[in-house]
Amino acid sequence: MTTSAAAPARHVLEQACSAAGLNPEGAEALRLAENQIWRLPGQRVIVRIAREGQSAAASREVRVARWLAEENVAAVRLIDVKQPVEVDGRPVTFWAELPPQEHGSVEDLALLLSQLHSLPAPDIELGYLDPLVRVEERLQAATTIRDDDREWLHGLHRDLAAAWADRPAGLPDRAVHGDAWPGNIVRTVDGVLMMDLERFSVGPPEWDLVSTAVRAKTTGAVSMREYDRFCAEYGHDVTAWEGYPILARVRELRMVTYAVQHASSNEEWIRQAQYRIDCLRGRSGPRPWSWQGIL
């Protein structure tokens, strides 16, 4: 992290903490990326600063966290202050600090998703799932890809938007996490918890299952043995659904445009973004491919 990156976030942090009655002195920056994460030592509080324009998403995340607490779903918990707080257009939320943790397994993820999807859709405003959110924005902002690749990705985006709108029927709509992968599940001494609630919405549960299937069948990040355990724990294999190819391609496109978005800041990420494009365009052989992480 750099001083220049931390300085503006610290101003927002101090103003937000003051509004919430918290002391920002000695705050530690844990992560300075799209969403900035700070720790308040001695108070067991984590402060999350979202980017500008995300006030509605932050308010939804607060509603979701309160609903999950009411339903006894294992997830990160808010602290008892009025929130979100907005400073300079950036929404800020405050969370109870977790004990030492590690990423969960695919079985941990399946267990929590099974619990979540067993609940009826909550009586709170979540909005309906948009699996292609920010794809167009990321493509427009990309500076490291060739024009022909950009146009091809725009065409794929249009095709997938139409396919999503006309997808086959599947499981009944439920509240879905929206970004369900083991990196958003943590294991602590208190058990397994769900994190990163900002993409919650109402939609097909298959969307939460597709991420793990894609990690097994597209990127190779999950072994087939792990994937079988995931399906056994959840009780359903999304790849058997006729709509799977649509949602899988959407997830792949999202992973490509995420890499494209961040590519300009790192030479290795430029190569990774291009490799992902080449894979989708049929230039790198059949799935599974070996995609490396970004950030």
Can I get a quick summary?
This protein is α+β, with helices and mostly antiparallel strands and 295 residues long.
The tally of structural domains comes to 2
Q: Give the structural class.
A: alpha+beta
Biggest β-sheet: count, sense, barrel? 5 strands, antiparallel
Arithmetic mean pLDDT? 93
CATH superfamily grouping of the largest domain = Aminoglycoside phosphotransferase (APH), C-terminal lobe
Q: Radius of gyration, Cα only, in angstroms?
A: 20 Å
Q: Provide the spatial order of strands within the biggest beta sheet.
A: 1-2-3-5-4
Helix content: 40-55%
CATH architecture of the largest domain: Alpha-Beta Complex
CATH hierarchy class name of the largest domain = Alpha Beta
Detail the poorly predicted runs.
Answer: none
Provide the β-strand percentage band. Answer: 5-15%
N- to C-terminal distance = 12 Å
- Principal-axis shape equals globular
Number of helices: 9
Q: What is the helix/strand order?
A: HEEEHEEEHHHEEEEHHHH
What is the number of beta strands? 10
Would you tell me which CATH topology of the largest domain applies?
A: Aminoglycoside 3'-phosphotransferase, Chain: A, domain 2
Name the descriptors.
single chain, Aminoglycoside 3'-phosphotransferase, Chain: A, domain 2, 5-stranded antiparallel beta sheet, 3-stranded antiparallel beta sheet, alpha+beta, 9 helices, 295 residues, Phosphorylase Kinase, domain 1
What does this entry look like structurally?
Helices cover about 45% and strands about 15% of the residues. It is of the alpha+beta class. It has 2 domains: about 5-95, 2-Layer Sandwich (Phosphorylase Kinase, domain 1); about 105-280, Alpha-Beta Complex (Aminoglycoside 3'-phosphotransferase, Chain: A, domain 2), CATH 3.90.1200.10. Strand 1 and strand 2 form a beta hairpin. The model has no long low-confidence stretch (mean pLDDT about 95).
